[in-house]
Amino acid sequence: MIATALGFLSNTVTDDVDARLEKFFTERTTLARSYGAQYPLLWDAARRASEGGKRFRPLLVMRTHDELGGKNHEAAIEVATAFELLHTAFLVHDDLIDHDDTRRGLPNLAGGESLRGQAAGLATTESELWGETSGILAGDLLIHFAQSMVARIDLPHPQRLALLDCFDDSVFVTAAGELADVALSAGLENADLSRVLAMSSHKTASYSFRGPLRAGAILAGASSETLELLDQYGALVGVAFQLRDDLLGVFGNEAATGKSALNDFRENKATALVAYARTTASWSSVEHLLGEPNLTEEEANLLRGMLELCGARSYVEVLISGHVGDACGIIAASSLPATLRDGLIAVAHASADRDA
Hints:
Blueprint: H1 2-5, H2 10-32, H3 38-49, H4 56-67, H5 73-98, E1 102-103, E2 106-107, H6 109-119, H7 124-151, H8 157-186, H9 193-219, H10 224-251, H11 254-257, H12 263-266, H13 272-277, H14 297-309, H15 312-332, H16 338-352
Antiparallel strand pairs: 1-2
Helix pairs in contact: 2-3, 2-5, 3-7, 4-5, 4-9, 5-7, 5-8, 5-9, 6-7, 7-8, 8-9, 9-10, 10-15, 10-16, 15-16
């Protein structure tokens, strides 16, 4: 687990961030009661959507800040919490885009609200609309309040602007990656390997690794050289993390991942696995199964078997190892504090070697 790789601060940081999240959701839910019966229920659903995650983005903020000698502990908790809210928002929106109704083995926000609508007597079409509406609004609200949380931190003006720029970049680049993901999967653009890897970097690395690391370093008053080094590391580990997600999306244990191992095939997701497979002669025999909304487990196994046979799975494993190796090399050769170097090297390996 990535959180475990971050070491002894994990429990304390998780407790601090969880307490801040609880305060945030309690305040919002209380205010929402003035605006009808459904609004506080939406905030309750958003609170549940934030539960059960790895919390590694907040841990990256806090560990980087502390190990670089930062003294802005309360500000670091605010920024760490903001990144967790942003993560929740992106998951809620991503599930809508991917037509997923489960997350971590349970109904996700939109899926849960759709079920609540059905239980209240709504027809299928109306309950699905209710779920989608709830997901869109909840994600939008969480993005807004995450940014508001960063903007309200009491810091010197240049430092606060640098934090806002970091957060803005995370949102801006991630949205670009999400849009590219859909464009490549839909066939609006050619899903070759270079484009898929760029999309993976934009969609995941920016807000999951580069942003939290940079934010923690900014709070600690780190040099521009340190910020650049952490950017390079974060970009590499972020791609490795997404590539592992792609493998888990089709080869993973659903009980561990909490998500269907059919959806990536059914949605014709643009992954490095498929991009590589398309360069091989044998892939054409099964490619017609991609994007089939009613794909069966038997058909999915045909696709998995071909991804193995044509070398795509092995190729992606090599890509992951290469990105992790390069990231660790950058950190090992740096002048970062030894405990931070060791932690980031452990994080790089944990990002690539996981089952969920």
